[in-house]
Specification:
With 86 residues, the protein is mainly beta. The protein has no helices and five strands. Strand 3 and strand 4 form a beta hairpin. It is elongated.
C-alpha cells in the first residue's frame, strides 16, 4: 500500500466530489454509491444503490455486499402485563 508521500497532490480544481465512507468497527463499511469493488481474484462487481454496505467480515452470503444474515438480532424488551418494559 502506498504511503501518503507516494501519492501525488491533485489540485482542488481537478478533483471530483469526495465519496463519503462511514466505518463502524461492529459492522460493514457504508459507502455513498454507486460503487465498484475489485475483488482479490481481479473480478469487479458494481452496485448502483445510493448507499452500499460493504462487508468487512467476509461472512455475508452476498459478499462483498453485506446482507447482515450472520449478525445477531437485537430484540426489543417485551412489555410485561402492565404494559411497561421490564
Amino acid at each position: 500500500m502506498p504511503s501518503t508521500s507516494d501519492i501525488p497532490e491533485v489540485p482542488a480544481s481537478d478533483r471530483g466530489p469526495a465519496r463519503r465512507v462511514t466505518v463502524d468497527p461492529q459492522g460493514p463499511i457504508m459507502v455513498e454509491g454507486p460503487v465498484e469493488v475489485v475483488l482479490a481474484d481481479g473480478t469487479s462487481v458494481r452496485s448502483d444503490r445510493f448507499t452500499v454496505a460493504i462487508c468487512t467480515c467476509r461472512r455475508s452470503r452476498t459478499y462483498p455486499w453485506c446482507d447482515t444474515s450472520h449478525r445477531p438480532r437485537e430484540r426489543p424488551d417485551r412489555p410485561n402485563e402492565d404494559g411497561n418494559s421490564s
